[in-house]
């Protein structure tokens, strides 16, 4: 497996590191970024070859992975198009950018996989949704699975619209979790704990609860009920959450994220 990365930011670094840990030789990876500091950092950290711009060297790779901001997707894709070979799979991790628009900017390149990873990929615990264009065969899908699977779980979808939903749930999801941790830490401080104590208890609670949900055959609702005694402390907290509409607010927030992902597709796709 040989992969060229366009963009050398945090997510690209996470994927490069994950692939190397999975046994992919550094010589099989290539990172392109116009920023000299980014190239130097990637080269020193992983020992991979780097370049300042797309060139004919890209043709020797099985896949080209786009890890740039969606705002520059069109310009990057148009610069990449002359150097692509028909056999290559183009893998996008850009939020909101639709396959049809990316393929158009790539002069009709037919082998495109759109994905949405999340930031826990930085520690090898990511969750990524993937969808492929009709031109991607089983080998190409496996290549994309192996690339994104190097940093966590992968889930395939047949409907591209679901990738906007993935963005709303797992792509943006870590921010929701951090937001709740912040709130627990604040409550702990108001109850007299210092910052270190607040952080330790809040983070450990989330880590432990997530692992319990992962390892249990029971639903989160059942697990919640097992913690909740009638008239007890947990019931008091959950009643307060319900009175404040916390659950509904979280759902509305995720739906707003999905709507924004669709808006981004429309906005950037018009270019």
TrEMBL record:
Provide the top EC class: oxidoreductase
Which locations, inside or outside the cell, does it occupy? Cytoplasm
Principal location: cytoplasm
Domain Pyrroline-5-carboxylate reductase dimerisation span(s) in chain numbering:
160-264
Q: Which residues cross the membrane?
A: none
What SUPFAM superfamilies does the record point to? 6-phosphogluconate dehydrogenase C-terminal domain-like, NAD(P)-binding Rossmann-fold domains
Any Pfam family from its record, for instance, is F420_oxidored
InterPro entries from the UniProt entry? 6-PGluconate_DH-like_C_sf (IPR008927), NAD(P)-bd_dom_sf (IPR036291), P5C_Rdtase_cat_N (IPR028939), P5CR_dimer (IPR029036), Pyrroline-COOH_reductase (IPR000304)
Instruction: Give GO MF terms, alphabetically.
Output: pyrroline-5-carboxylate reductase activity
Q: Which UniProt keywords apply?
A: Amino-acid biosynthesis, Cytoplasm, NADP, Oxidoreductase, Proline biosynthesis
Q: What is its EC number?
A: 1.5.1.2
**Residue ranges annotated for the Pyrroline-5-carboxylate reductase catalytic N-terminal domain, each copy included:** 2-96
Catalysed reactions listed for this entry:
L-proline + NAD(+) = (S)-1-pyrroline-5-carboxylate + NADH + 2 H(+); L-proline + NADP(+) = (S)-1-pyrroline-5-carboxylate + NADPH + 2 H(+)
Pathway in which this enzyme or protein is active: Amino-acid biosynthesis; L-proline biosynthesis; L-proline from L-glutamate 5-semialdehyde: step 1/1
| UniProt key word Cytoplasm | yes
- Cross-referenced HAMAP family: P5C_reductase
Sum up the protein's function in the record's words: Catalyzes the reduction of 1-pyrroline-5-carboxylate (PCA) to L-proline.
For this entry, the protein name equals: Pyrroline-5-carboxylate reductase
Gene (UniProt): proC
